[in-house]
Amino acid sequence: xxxxxxxxxxxxxxxxxxxxxxxxxxxxxxxxxxxxxxxxxxxxxxxxxxxxxxxxxxxxxxxxxxxxxxxxxxxxxxxxxxxxxxxxxxxxxxxxxxxxxxxxxxxxxxxxxxxxxxxxxxxxxxxxxxxxxxxxxxxxxxxxxxxxxxxxxxxxxxxxxxxxxxxxxxxxxxxxxxxxxxxxxxxxxxxxxxxxxxxxxxxxxxxxxxxxxxxxxxxxxxxxxxxxxxxxxxxxxxxxxxxxxxxxxxxxxxxxxxxxxxxxxxxxxxxxxxxxxxxxxxxxxxxxxxxxxxxxxxxxxxxxxxxxxxxxxxxxxxxxxxxxxxxxxxxxxxxxxxxxxxxxxxxxxxxxxxxxxxxxxxxxxxxxxxxxxxxxxxxxxxxxxxxxxxxxxxxxxxxxxxxxxxxxxxxxxxxxxxxxxxxxxxxxxxxxxxxxxxxxxxxxxxxxxxxxxxxxxxxxxxxxxxxxxxxxxxxxxxxxxxxxxxxxxxxxxxxxxxxxxxxxxxxxxxxxxxxxxxxxxxxxxxxxxxxxxxxxxxxxxxx
Amino acid sequence: xxxxxxxxxxxxxxxxxxxxxxxxxxxxxxxxxxxxxxxxxxxxxxxxxxxxxxxxxxxxxxxxxxxxxxxxxxxxxxxxxxxxxxxxxxxxxxxxxxxxxxxxxxxxxxxxxxxxxxxxxxxxxxxxxxxxxxxxxxxxxxxxxxxxxxxxxxxxxxxxxxx
Lengths: 543, 163
Description:
The complex is a heterodimer of chains A (543) and B (163). In chain A, 37% of the residues lie in helices and 12% in strands. Chain A is α/β, with parallel strands linked by helices. Chain A has a domain at 6-251 and 430-534: Amidase signature (AS) enzymes (Alpha-Beta Complex). In chain A, the strands form two sheets. In chain A, strands 1-3-2-4-6-5-10-11-9-7-8 form an eleven-stranded mixed β-sheet, with helices on both faces. With 163 residues, chain B is an all-alpha fold. The radius of gyration of chain B is 31 Å and the shape is extended. A two-stranded antiparallel ribbon of chain B has the order 1-2. In chain B, β1 and β2 form a beta hairpin. Among the domains of chain B are: 2-36, no CATH class; 50-97, no CATH class. The longest helix of chain B is centred in the N-terminal third of the chain and has 23 residues, at 14-36. Residues 1-13 and 158-163 of chain B have low confidence and may be disordered. At the A-B interface, α9, β8, α10, α11 and α12 of A face α1, α2, α3 and α4 of B.
C-alpha cells in the first residue's frame, strides 16, 4: 500500500481495507528500516499515532475530513511546526520549538493528514545536494536499488559499497527521499531556486513549485522572500494536484498570497494535447547537459508533436545570466534574512557576556556553517553602498529581463515550456563534495531557478532512467496561476513515459504492502541484501 | 520479465498490461521517428558557453572592506579560504556586467502589478508572552536579556587573536 499513490490509499482507507493506524504503523516501521537514508531529522511517532487514532475514529463514523485524511506525510524541517523542533538543519535553530504551525502545515492537518516527521535538508535550505546540514547528508534511496548496485559493481568492482552512494539533490533531499523510499505519500519541500524540483528529479518522483503568491509562506523560515514558495513532492502528478488544492489560496498571515479565489481541481484521465503549444527554449541546452537527458528531452518533444501538439523552438535570450543574477539576489536577501538570528529571542546563544555585539558575533560564528556565512558575507558585499547599484540593482534589472523572456514566450502563444530539470543524474556523494556549494548550486539550479525569478509554476516529472539505472526528470514550466494546464500536460506526459517508482520486493514477488525489505547489519548504515531479500526497481520504462 | 511477474500476481491488472504495452510502443515509436528525422525541435548542441573571461581583477577585496563586512554581517571570514570564497563569488557575479540593462527598471517582486493584502488594523492575536519567551536562553521576568550594549567590537587583529 505504501507503494501506491494518495488516491489508492484514500480509497483503501474508505473501503476499510486498512485503518489509518495500520498505515501509520507500516510507515513508521519503514522509516526505521530505512533510517540509514538520513531522510528524517525528527520522527514524530507519538503525534503520528495520535493523529492516526483520531483519523480511525472519523473513518469509523464514516466522516473522513478529506482526501488526505489518514495519509502519512512529511514536512521539510524549515516549516514551523507547533511543539515540534524545527531546526533548518542548523546549529543556530537546534532545540527551537515553534509556538505555531506554518499555514501549509495547518492546512494539511485540517485535512486529517498524519505527520510522520520533519525531513533533512541543507542548512537553511542553502544547497543543491542535501549534503550541507548539521545532521549529515541524505542518501538517495536509488543508491540501494538492485539495478544500480549491479551496474555499479560491474563498472567498478573495487568500489566500497559503504561509501558508494548517491546524493538526493537538494535542498529538500530528505523530503524527496522520504517519498521515494515510500515512507510517506506526500512531502512538503521549499523551492527558492529549484530545491523541490532538483531532488524530486534525482529521486524519481514528481516535484511541483507553484506560482509565487499562490501558496502561503507564513511559517516557512525564509531564505529569499521574493522567490521562496512551498513545494510539493509526490509519487504522481494527480497527487500533486490534490495537495495543491489543499494548500493553495489566500492567507491573511502572508500578504504576498494573492486574494483571488482558488478553485481546487482534479486532472482528467483523458487529456487532449492537440490544441497545445509547447515551447522548447533553445537556451536550455546549456553547457554540461548530459547526452542522456538531451535524448530524453528530444524524445519527449517528439512524443508531444506526434500526439498532435504544436512544438516550437523558442528563444529566451537572458537565460544564461539567470543563474548569476540568482546568485546575487539570493545572497543579498539571505544577508538580510539571516540578520534575525542573533541569539537573543530564540535559537543558539554563545556564552559571551562582554557586549551585545560580541555575543551576536560569537553566536553567529558558532551557529552558521561555512556556506551560510559565505552567503551572508557575499550578500553584504553586494549590498554595500558602493556596490549596491553595480551588483544588487543590476541583478534586479537583469531579473526583469529574465521575467520578460517568460512574458514574451507565453504572449507568443506558447502554453507550456518543456526543459530538462537537471544537467544529469544524481552524483555519487564523494564526487559531489569535490566542488564547493556555490559551484554545485550554479550547476544544479541552472534550469530551475529561472522559474523562481519569474514567479511562474514548474513541475518535474520522472521521464526515464540513465545508463547507470538512475532516474532522470524533465521539467514543464507554465504560465503564472495556470497550474491546472501545467499539471494536465505533466500528467499526460507521465502516462506516456510510464516511469515506475522505486518499489521493493521480497523474493521477487510483491510483498503484500510493497514493503521495502532493507535490513541493517550492526547498524553500519549499509543496505544489506540477504539471499532471501531482493530489492527491485520495477522501472518499466522502455522495458 | 518483471512486468509479467507483477501483473500475473495481480490479475485485475491485465488491462494495465495492454495499456503498458501500448504506451511502451508509443514511446519507442517516438524514438524511432526521432532517429529517422533530424528535425528535432530540441537543439542538439549547447546554445551558450560558460563565461570564462570574467575579469580576475574583479574579485579583489581590500582588508578594510573585509573588516567592514565582518562588522556589518556580524560573522567572520574565519580564514583565508573564506576570503577567497568571497572573491570567487564576486567574480561569478561580475558576469552580470555583460548584460545591457539600459533603460530597464529593477524588478523587486513578481507581484509588483498587484496590490498586496492589507489586513484591518486591529489586534487579532496576543497573550502569548510565555510562548514567545520560551525559546529564549536568558530572560528576566518578561524581558529578553542581552549583555551590555554600545560597546564596539574590538579591531580585526584582536578578533583574530581571540580565536
